[in-house]
Amino acid sequence: MVTDEIWKLPAIVNRFLSYRAAIPLAQEQISVMMSILKTRKQPIQRFLDLGCGDGILGAAILGEYPSARGVFVDFSESMLELAREGLKEYADQLAFENLDYGDQAWVNRIDSKGPFDAVVSGYSIHHQPDSRKRQIYEEIFSLLKPDGWFVNIEHIAAESQLAVDLFNRHVIDGRYSIEKASGGTKTRQEISDIFMNRPDKDANILLSVNAQCDWLREIGYEEVDCYFRIYELAVFGGRKPNLKS
Ligand SMILES: C[S@@+](CC[C@H](N)C(=O)[O-])C[C@H]1O[C@@H](n2cnc3c(N)ncnc32)[C@H](O)[C@@H]1O
Known about the structure:
alpha/beta; Rossmann fold; 7-stranded mixed β-sheet; globular; binds S-adenosylmethionine
């Protein structure tokens, strides 16, 4: 199995979702994403959630812009099914696409549904090799309307071993709390062993957020920044310039 395809396994999907609350400041990251998007003068009419999982980021956008049309892309049918189910009240305005964005052809399948006011992605693109990450950022740029935002909530490479250690400790503590609260019997050491040897770890290809922001600037995005960072997690992105304004 290609390492990132591990996300097609229902067991991996379930583990990620049951432990999401252990992600450091996960809600705050989504709040930062929304704060960025709300700086737009116009409401979001069309958005794309890339590597959408159960659609948590798109759901946040719909919470603020309930008449927006959304496209949700993932190559895990288990995830797409959860997204479809969770967002069924918006069914008429949403499209769910089973696509592998590791293959450049994904853009052709999405092109007619854009251009987009916002493209968001959560903990997903880091599964791609670095050269492909940069191409994906270019492909997203091509899918955006002028003034459209790309916001990536992402697992990135920390600059220090201490940040890596603090990230691991935070997640293990969080997972241990979830274990206890749900009546589980695993010790903290057992939780730690499971996390440190998790099967999806090999699928991570982490890169510093600064290197990724530099690419966004080179591609032509403006207002590029890392708007939030904790340990190995970052919210970064940029806006497609509006050459008429
Ligand atoms: C860690 S989950 C995050 C899900 C969601 N975005 C969130 O923030 O909770 C990563 C998601 O990216 C999807 N994914 C990974 N590589 C992909 C690819 N090449 N094409 C499409 N989806 C991909 C996985 O199937 C999974 O649903």
